[in-house]
Amino acid sequence: MPAGEYRQSSPEPNSFEEAGWVWGQIKAQARCDAEGEPALASYLYSTILSHSSLEGSLSFHLGNKLCSSTLLSTLLYDLFLNSFSTDANIRSATVADLRAARHRDPACVSFSHCLLNYKGFLACQAHRVAHKLWTQSRRPLALALQSRISDVFAVDIHPAAKIGKGILFDHATGVVVGETAVIGNNVSILHRVTLGGTGKVGSDRHPKIGDGVLIGAGATILGNIKIGEGAKIGAGSVVLIDVPPRTTAVGNPARLVGGKEQPTKHE
Amino acid sequence: MPAGEYRQSSPEPNSFEEAGWVWGQIKAQARCDAEGEPALASYLYSTILSHSSLEGSLSFHLGNKLCSSTLLSTLLYDLFLNSFSTDANIRSATVADLRAARHRDPACVSFSHCLLNYKGFLACQAHRVAHKLWTQSRRPLALALQSRISDVFAVDIHPAAKIGKGILFDHATGVVVGETAVIGNNVSILHRVTLGGTGKVGSDRHPKIGDGVLIGAGATILGNIKIGEGAKIGAGSVVLIDVPPRTTAVGNPARLVGGKEQPTKHE
Amino acid sequence: MPAGEYRQSSPEPNSFEEAGWVWGQIKAQARCDAEGEPALASYLYSTILSHSSLEGSLSFHLGNKLCSSTLLSTLLYDLFLNSFSTDANIRSATVADLRAARHRDPACVSFSHCLLNYKGFLACQAHRVAHKLWTQSRRPLALALQSRISDVFAVDIHPAAKIGKGILFDHATGVVVGETAVIGNNVSILHRVTLGGTGKVGSDRHPKIGDGVLIGAGATILGNIKIGEGAKIGAGSVVLIDVPPRTTAVGNPARLVGGKEQPTKHE
C-alpha cells in the first residue's frame, strides 16, 4: 500500500456514495501531498483543493490541458462541467475508470495520481464528453474536441466510438479508436493500440471489444471483428480474425493460443 | 454525403480555380457550423472566417499550434504565409492533400474538418514549408520547425525528406520519416509508420515510396529500398526488401503476398 | 562534417573540462545560426546565448517546454537548475547524451541542434531530474514531472527507472519505460520502444538493458529479462526472453539470429 493512501471501508462500486468516497480520498491525498511538497501546493490547490466536486476538478484540469489560443479554457470548462453534471452515466464511468487504474496498474499510487497525471484517463473522460456531443448532433464541436485530445494526449478516439466503464488506457500514447468501434466494460488497453479498419468495407468497419479484455502494447486490431469477453491480445499482435472469449491471440498475423480465465495485472 | 457539405460541380484537380473552389467550400462549411454551434463561432471566425484565403487561414492555424513562449506565433505566421504565397507548388499540394483526406478517409466529413482537425494534414503542410527552408539552406530554422511539429503533432519528418502531392497521413501519431526518404504522389500513410534507416549504410539510407502506395498502421520500412507504385504494406509489417508495384507485403519480416490493382479506402 | 561545426581538439570524455568545451561549441553554433538566420536570433538568445552555463540553458528550455497554466515555468526552471547544479552525475550524463546524439545519429548536425530540438534528449534530461526527486522521496513532484514529459514529448518514463549515460532516444515518440526497468550506458533506443511488464509478476517486473545495446523502432521488450551488452533488438520485435551479449534478436516473438561485435550507426 503506497504511503499516503487513505484506506477506509470502500462502498459498493457504482453506488452514489462511491463517487463521494473517491472524491474524499482524492482531496485527502492532495492535502497530504501539498503539505509534503510545498512546490506543488499551488498546483494542487488550483487543480483539486479549490473544487467542491470531482466533476469540477476534472473539468478545470481538462479545460486547461485541452485549451488553445483559439479554443478557450473557460469554454471547455463550461462544456465539461455541464456534461459531467447532467449525465450520471458519465460520472459513474469516470469513477469506474479511476478504480480501474488504481486496481489494475501497479504503478498507480492513488486516485489523485490518476486524476492529475494519467493522460489515458484524461483522454477517455474527454472522449466521453465528445461522444455525448456526437449523439446530440453537435458534431463539429465533438470533432474539434477529438482533435485537441489527439494533439495534447496523442490519443485519437473518434467521438462516435462507444466505450464502456472501468476502462484503463495505460500510458496511452498512440492509441487510435475508429468511428464504429465498441469497447465493453473493464477493458485494459495499453499504449499504441489501434482499433481500426481494413479499408475493405463500408460503414460498420471497426472492432467490437468484449468485457474484461486485455490488449497489449502495440496491438493492431482491424476490421469489424469480435474480441470475446476476457480475451487477451498479445503485445505487437496484428489481429484480423474473431477471438473467442477467454482466449489469447498473439503474433503477426495473430493466432489463437488457448484459453485463460482472467486477464491479470499488468503494466 | 455528410450534412453541411456543399457539393457543386468541382473544377479539374490542380487547376487554379480549384483552390478557390475548395476555399469557398471551407468558408461555407465554417459559416454553417458557426450558426449551428455558437460555442464554436469565435473559434471558426478566428481560424477561417476572418481570413481571405486558404493560405491565410492555414498560416494562422499552424502559427498558433506550433508557437511556443520562445518561438512566437507572429513569426511563424509570417513564415508560413510567405512560403505559401510565393510557392504555387506548395499551394497545389495543400489542395491535393485536402482532397486526399476527403476522398480516401471515410471519417473525414468536410474539407474544413481536415483543415482544422487533422494533425497529419497540418504536420504535412508545415513540413512542406520546412522542406522549402531546407532547400534554401535555412537549415537551423527548418530543424526548429521539425522539432515543433514533432512536439505538437508527434509527427517527425526530416525537413530534407521529399513528399509529393495528395498525401493522407491518417491519425498520424508516431509517424517518422527520415532525411533521405522520398514519398510519391497520392500516398496514404497510417499512424505509427516509420520510413527509417537500418543503421548499416551511409548517406542515402531511407525508403523511396512510389505513387499510390498505401502503408498500414505501425508498418516499419527500413533502408534505401523501393516500394513500387500502388503497392500495399500491411499493418505492423517490418519491410526490409523492395516491394514491386501493385504488390502487397505483410508480416515481420515482410513477405510478398500477391498483386492488386489499387489501394482501397481505409481508416 | 556539417557546416558550422566548430571542431577543436576535444578533451577526454567525462572530464570536467569536457562540459565547458561542449557548452562553448553550443554557444559558438548558436551565435553562427543567429547571424545567418535573423528570424531565429531572439529564440537563440533566450534559449542559449543569454545563459552562462549548459545547466542554465537546459533548465530554461525544459521549464518552458514542460510548464502549463497550473505548473509554472519559473517553478520548473528552479527545480531543474537546482538539480543540475548540485548533481555532477546528472551533468556528466547530460554531456554524454549530447555526445551520443552527435556521434550516433547521422541526422544530428551539432550539439546545439540536439539541445534545442531533440525531444528524446530533453525527455531524458527531465527524467534524470524526476528520478532524483523519486530517490529523495519527493514522489508526487516526480510523478507530476513524468506526466508532463509524457504530455509534451510523448515519452513516458517512470521516475523510478534507472538510466545510464550516453543514451540516445532517437525520434522518441511513443517510448515507454516501466518502473523497475534499468538501462545501462551508451544505449540507443529508437521511437515506439516499450520496456514494459508482462502482467504476470510482482514488484521487479521490467527489462534490464546492458551497455551498448541498440533497440530498433517499435520493439516491445516485456518482463524482468536481461538484454546483454552490445545486443541488438530488431525493429518491431516482441522480446520475452533473455538476449545474450552481442546477439541480435528479431521477430514476433523474437528469436536470436547470431552475434555481432558492435551496434552501428543508425537512424
Taking all residues together, what is the mean pLDDT of chain A? 92
Indicate the proportion of strand residues of chain A.
Answer: 5-15%
The CATH topology of the largest domain in chain A turns out to be serine acetyltransferase, domain 1
Number of domains of chain A: 2
Largest sheet of chain A: 6 strands, mixed
Number of strands of chain A: 15
| String of helices and strands of chain A | HHHHHHHHEEEEEEEEEEEEEEE
What oligomeric state do these chains adopt?
homotrimer
Biggest sheet, spatial arrangement of strands of chain A: 3-6-9-12-14-15
List unreliable stretches of 5+ residues of chain A.
1-8, 262-267
Intertermini distance of chain A? 17 Å
The greatest inter-chain interface is formed by:
B-C, 42 and 45 residues
User: Helical residue percent of chain A?
Assistant: 40-55%
- Under the CATH scheme, the architecture of the largest domain in chain A is Orthogonal Bundle
The CATH homologous superfamily name of the largest domain in chain A equals serine acetyltransferase, domain 1
List the defining traits of the structure above.
homotrimer; 267 residues; serine acetyltransferase, domain 1; UDP N-Acetylglucosamine Acyltransferase, domain 1; 2 domains; 5-stranded parallel beta sheet; 15% strand; disordered N terminus
Explained architecture:
Three copies of one chain form a homotrimer. Chain A has helices at residues 16-36, 41-49, 54-66, 73-86, 88-104, 111-117, 119-135, 139-153, and strands at residues 156-157, 162-163, 168-170, 176-177, 182-183, 188-190, 194-196, 208-209, 214-215, 220-222, 226-227, 232-233, 238-239, 247-250, 255-259. In chain A, the strands form three sheets. A six-stranded mixed beta sheet of chain A has the order 3-6-9-12-14-15. Helices cover 42% and strands 15% of the residues of chain A. Chain A folds into two domains: 16-155, serine acetyltransferase, domain 1; 162-259, UDP N-Acetylglucosamine Acyltransferase, domain 1 (3 Solenoid), CATH 2.160.10. In chain A, helix 3 packs antiparallel against helix 4 (73-86) and helix 7 packs antiparallel against helix 8. With 267 residues, the first copy, chain A, is of the alpha/beta class. At the B-C interface, helix 8 of B face helix 2 and helix 6 of C.
